[in-house]
Design a protein that fits this description.
Blueprint (H helix, E strand, L loop, with lengths): L32 E7 L4 H4 L13 H14 L3 E2 L1 E4 L3 H10 L4 E2 L7 E4 L16 H7 L1 H9 L11 H18 L4 E6 L1 H12 L16 E6 L6 E7 L12
Length: about 250
Amino acid sequence: RGPPAPPPPPPRGRADPPPPAGPPGGGAPAPATWTVLLRHGQTKVSVEKRFGGLVDAPLTEVGLAQAAAAGARLRGEAFDAVITSPLRRARRTAEAALPGLVPAAGRDEVEFVVDEQLRETDFGAWEGLTFAEARERHPDELSAWLADPAVPPPGGESLAATIERVRLALDRHRAERPGGRLLVVTHMGPIKSAASLALAAGPAVFYRLHLGLASLTTIAWYADGPAVLHAFNDVSHLPGASLAGE
């Protein structure tokens, strides 16, 4: 039997990934499972900078254009599956990307999967509120939430719980498609969760990462070694994108 095929490349426009170190003592490394994580496009909630975890807001016209631009960036790329949050803003973004993708080797089509576990964080009583409104109504609870990732909003979900939920979901999809390439269309919380897991950085990294709308983040997950974050918050496909963020 010949040597294993090299890992699939990340989306065009990124640098080629470095080869993994491989197992101790030499030998061929295990193939990585790649996740390309796409944040949904703009909604009215994101424009107004409100807590919108489970608010099922549709994309705005700008958001639809962002979704189309992300789809154009990924056109012709090979994937085993598109896995999306069930919320409308993510599903619509996923649907914009799906037609341009091609099936990975050995597949007749790109699988389309809706996964409830890849929804946004549930912000409980703060859903639909701005940060200022949440502070005015729940000052002590908001301070506690900012200080401790294990503290949930009133009636909601903590950042630590979000990370664990996303870890279990990604582990499941990677186990089902080992060595595959997955487009995961989701939200700020789950994508930051994936990045924190890849970096072994812990929940505190949430407050130190900016993640733009319709951005792409690429992670290679190795069964025999640590994950590698190849790209984060790539918005080069969006009109007017700059390093200053959205």
